[in-house]
Amino acid sequence: MTSLLLVISAPSGTGKTTVCDRLISSSPDITYSISFTTRAPRAGEIEGKHYQFVSEERFKTLIRQGELVEWAIVHGNYYGTPRAPLEVSLSQRKVLVMDIDVQGGIQIRDKYKESVLIFIIPPSLEELKLRLQHRKTDDEETINKRLLGAKEELKYASCYDYYLVNHQIDETVNKLKAIIAAEKCNINRMVFDIWDGVI
Ligand code: 5GP
User: Is the pLDDT of residue 1 over 70?
Assistant: First the structure.
């Protein structure tokens, strides 16, 4: 068994949350990294399920105490990945799905050989704008900011290992499962205790 840290980054509105939810519910060996954030909860978001919502003061204490493996400021709020669950996932040789931005993805890539970086994009910027408008959670100004952010994020796609265009949720989830299966067989990730050390 091989542990994997599956970093999934995508511009907001790409369908990443649905894709991650579907992937996680497909296997008990796949768990989700619940980030800390200083942003306010949105309607329907649950403390401890979607995020751990904390004050800026508490977030800075977490940084000082070394409890975050990476952190970044995204759209003016702090976001960070807690260390303890990540270490548990590694020690249990599980797959940890991390829905984090490109700044966080690059930090994880540089620190952990178990990382696999996947960038998901919508079919086009026009399609992304439509999806953001349909969500009805953001005003026009916020949507425009998110579109600009998406263009910025796309510049980092070449730092990633895989690039998926989310045309259809089922197809994207199946591709993610295929990536997990392939990465678990990757010879460079093998733990050499197979057949009592023969290979
Ligand atoms: P949202 O506020 O829309 O949930 O997330 C905004 C952005 O923050 C998304 O790109 C999301 O992937 C990113 N994000 C969420 N959690 C983390 C984290 O722990 N670290 C980093 N670097 N980014 C995060």
Answer: no
Does 100 sit in the ligand 1 pocket, CB within 6 Å? yes
The 8-class DSSP code of residue 42 comes to P
Report the first-to-last Cα separation within the chain, whole angstroms: 14
The CATH number of residue 28's host domain is: 3.40.50.300
18 within some domain: yes
Q: Which amino acid is at 158?
A: S
Cβ of residue 86 lying under 6 Å from some atom of ligand 1:
no
DSSP designation for 47? B
Tokens 């990382």 sit on residue = 115
pLDDT tens-place string over residues 146-195: 888 888 888 888 899 999 999 999 999 999 999 999 999 988 776 655 56
pLDDT tens digit sequence for 9-33: 998 888 899 999 999 999 999 999 9
Q: Return the amino acid letter for 191.
A: V
> Total structural domains in the chain?
1
Specify the pTM.
0.91
Position in ligand 1 atom list of the atom nearest CA 68: 19
Domain span at residue 87 reads 4-189
Does residue 197 belong to any structural domain of this protein?
Answer: no
Q: Which tokens sit at 138?
A: 């953001």
